[in-house]
Amino acid sequence: MILYLGASLYHILCFSVHKMIHHPKEEAMLVVGDNIFSKNGMDELKTDIMESGIFQRMEILKFIEGAYHNPVRLDEDSSKEDVNQFVKENNVWVEKWLSKKEIQMESMTHIYSAIDHRHLGLYILSKQIPYAYFEDGNGLLSREFVQLEFHKNAQYESYAICKFLGALGQNDSVIKKYANLSAQLPGFQDDKAEDFQVISLFESLSPHIQKIIFHMYHMKEVLDFHGTKPVLFLTRYAKYMKNPTVDRHHFMATILVDLFGDQRPLVLKAHPRDFSGRYAEILPDAKIMARQFPSELLPFVTKEKYQKVITVGSTAIDALTECAEEIIKLNETFEDKLNQIYSYVGMIMAIKRAFPDIKEGEIGYAGPIPEFIAPLGIEYLGISIEEAVEEKEYKVLWLDQKNYGMYHGENLCTLYPQYIDKIDEEKMFYLEMMARKTKKSSLGYEEEGVLSFQFENPKNKEKLKGWSKIEMFEYTKSRMSVSEMPEKKQEYKRECDKIRELHGKIDLPRLGESVTEEDIFAMKKLKEKLSKRK
Fold it and tell me: Which residues pair with 408 in a beta bridge?
C-alpha cells in the first residue's frame, strides 16, 4: 500500500497525477486534513475522490481535534524539551487514530507527504520513517521563509517543529523532494529536488485519465467562449485579509472585475475556504467553478487562452503565468488602499487627459503598490507605469504615501501634496473626486478625494481646466466623478498644503461643500502663527 498525505486541493491534484504516472496499478491510500474547507464539504470531496478510482482508500484527519488533544502549547520561550514533549503527545494521539482506522504504517511501501509539521506528518518525521516530500505550493520549496513566517504568526507549534525538527522537507528522513523547479527563486539548488510541474504533467496524461480527474472536481466539459479570451479571477480567503469582513471582500472582488474585466467573459474560482457565498449574485455573468476545483487545472477549462488572470494573494497564480496574456497579482498591501481606489482611478484618468501622448518609460510611480498601478496604466493609458528608479528624470512622477527625494519628475501628481519636496503655488492644480453608491445594494464605498498636480508647463494645467469625467462601475454599483476644484477650494487647499509642508502631519479641517474667504483667511493666519512658533 502507498500512502499520500496532504492538506489542500493542490496536494490532492499532485498526488492524483503522481499516482497515475508512477503507480498506476498499485493500491494507494489518501489521507487529507479536514482544513481544506472552512465549514463543510469533506464528505462530498471524499465521495468524489473515491468514485474516481484513483485511490483505493481515503481517510480524513481532523486537524483541530488533534490540536485540542495535545496538552502542550509552544511559544517563543519553549525549549527543545518542550518541543519533544509536544511531539510525544502528538504521537500518542496519532497512534490511537491509526489503531482506530486499522492503518499499519509498516505496510506502506512508499510514503509521500506534503505536510510534515502536523499530526500524522509529524509522526512520520519524528519516527524517522523515510518519505518523499511534496512542496506545499508552487515555488514554496525555495521560499521556506514564507511558510515559517506564516506558521510563526498563525500557529507557533508548527513553526517550532520546523525550527527544531526540520519540517518542510528539511531533514534527513526525506529521500526526495517534488517541486515545480521553474517557480523557485533564482539560483535555487537542492540535490534531492525533482521537477514536478503538475500542469505539464497533467497535460501528458491520456485524455481518459484527464477526464477522470476533471470529473473528480465537478468539471464536466470544457468552456467555449467562441474565440473571445476570458478573464480569470481568483478570490482570496477572507480570513487572510487584514480586515476580514464580507463587505470588504466583495467590494475588492467587484471593483477589480469592474476595473480590469474589460467587458470580457469572466471565469471565477473561489478559494476552497471562501464561503462568503454570493458570487452568483454580485457577479451574475461569471462562470463560477466548483470550489473543489484546483486552480492549477484552470488552464485546461477553456478553449481560449485567458486575456488576464486577477487575484489578491493567491499562490496558485504562480502556476498560471503561461496561460494568460496579463497577470494582475496584488498582495496584501493593496487592502490598505481599498478606501482610496476611486482616487487612484480618477488620477489615472486625469493623467490621460493632461498627457494623452505619454509613452512607456516617461511615467514612474514611487509608492507601495506598483503591482496595482502598473496594470491600471495598461488599462487606461495603454502603457505600464514603471516603479520609479533613481537618477532618471520622468515626464510624470506619481508620488504616494512617502516623499522619495531620490526620484525626479518634471510634473508631479499625488494624493498627498505634503510629500512634494517644494510646492510651487503657481504650478499647483487640484481636482475633486467624488464616488457615490448608485443603489442600496451597492458594494462600493462613499469616497471623496483631492487629486493634486504640480505642472511644470502651464499648458498641461489648461488641459484640466473645466474638465470633468464620470465613470460607472457596473458590478460595484457605484458612480465616480472627477472635476476641477473651484478656485476658492483650490486656494484653501494650497494653504493647507503649505502648512503640512512646513509642519508635517497636522490635523486640519476637511474641505466642505463650499469654502469662504473667511476659511482661507483662517488658514493663512494659522500658517503665520505656526511659522512664528517654529
Answer: 393
Closest by CA position to 8, among listed 249, 237, 255 = 237
Selection from 432, 277, 255 nearest residue 330 by Cα: 255
Cα gap 235→279, rounded to integer Å: 10
Computed from CA positions of residues 15, 16, 22, 24, in that sequence, does the dihedral angle turn out positive or negative? positive
What count of other Cβ atoms lies within 10 Å of the Cβ of residue 175? 12
Query: For residues 124 and 131, is the Cβ–Cβ distance under 8 A?
Result: yes
Look at residue 319 and give its three-state secondary structure: helix
Q: How far apart are CA 14 and CA 27, in angstroms?
A: 17
* Distinct helix (H) and strand (E) counts, the chain: 16, 20
Checking DSSP bridges between strand 110-113 and strand 131-134, what pairing results, if any?
parallel
Cell numbers for 141, please give them: 520549496
d(CA 289, CA 292): 8
Lowest-confidence pick of 8-17, 198-207, 379-388, 490-499: 490-499
Residue that has been written with the C-alpha cell 458590478 in this structure: 475
Q: Is the dihedral of CA 212, 213, 215, 219 positive or negative?
A: negative
- Whole-Å CA distances, 112 to 36, 72, 90, 407, 429: 18, 27, 20, 51, 63
- Contact call for residues 238 and 249 (beta carbons, < 8 A): yes
Instruction: Say which residue the cell 478510482 belongs to.
Output: 53
CA angle 352, 370, 247 (to 5 degrees): 95
Q: How far apart are CA 480 and CA 66, in angstroms?
A: 51
Among 187-191, 239-243, 249-253, the minimum mean pLDDT is found in: 239-243
DSSP H or E stretch at residue 248: helix 246-260
- The whole-model pTM stands at 0.75
Pick 170 or 63 by higher pLDDT.
170
How many other C-beta atoms can be found within 10 angstroms of the C-beta atom of residue 171? 16
Q: In what order do the strands lie in the sheet with 478-484?
A: 386-387, 363-366, 393-399, 408-414, 447-454, 428-437, 478-484, 468-473
Q: Give Cα 103 to chain centroid, integer Å.
A: 39
Alpha-carbon gap, residue 449 to 494, rounded angstroms: 15
What is the Cα–Cα distance from 265 to 229, expressed in whole angstroms?
7
Contacts 24+ apart (CB under 8 A), 191-196: 193/141, 196/14, 196/18, 196/134
Q: Cell triple for residue 18?
A: 503522481
